[in-house]
Design a protein that fits this description.
Length: 160
């Protein structure tokens, strides 16, 4: 779940509602997947790195899930998959296990991590916008916490 949350950059509600078939083809974990986001109803594509594919494969082998089942099923009978609240508790546990202040980290930290790294390496706001599934570039600028003036200056320096 940890690796997939970083790689996918999905909101918690979209991550916990992934089905096995969303990221697999037969017994193979896909290197790239696409899902429709619940909030925006827009498709978003993401890459699954090799460590994530290995982790997901191990999980699928252990859990014996069918392609139509949720990737992270709930142990609670009335819930088909792990809730967003449970995912939040898991993310806080990850932060604590890493020796971090868990109050400063949550599910959105997982979503923001790879997007921030991609932006820092490439300065490509449009790419990050697409990866996050934002409809407006301004949303991506706000999301990354960068100054609008800095973003405009970077975009003006980019050759087309």
């Amino acid at each position: 779940m940890f690796n997939l949350s970083i790689d996918s950059k999905l909101r918690g509600c979209d991550l916990v509602s992934l089905r096995v078939r969303d990221i697999t083809h037969g017994n193979q974990v896909l290197s790239r997947a696409m899902v429709i986001q619940r909030k925006t109803q827009r498709p978003v594509q993401f890459e699954l790195t090799e460590p994530t594919r290995v982790a997901v494969s191990a999980w699928l082998e252990k859990s014996h899930l069918r392609s139509d089942q949720f990737l992270f099923p709930s142990r609670v009978a009335r819930s088909p998959h792990v809730s967003t609240r449970q995912y939040a508790r898991i993310a806080h546990h990850w932060a604590e296990a890493a020796g971090l202040d868990s109050s400063a980290y949550g599910t959105h930290s997982m979503r923001r991590t790879k997007a921030t790294l991609i932006y820092k390496r490439t300065k490509n706001l449009r790419a990050v916008q697409l990866l996050l599934g934002h409809s407006k570039l301004e949303s991506t600028v706000r999301y990354l916490g960068i100054e609008v003036d800095d973003a405009l200056e970077i975009s003006e320096q980019t050759e087309i």
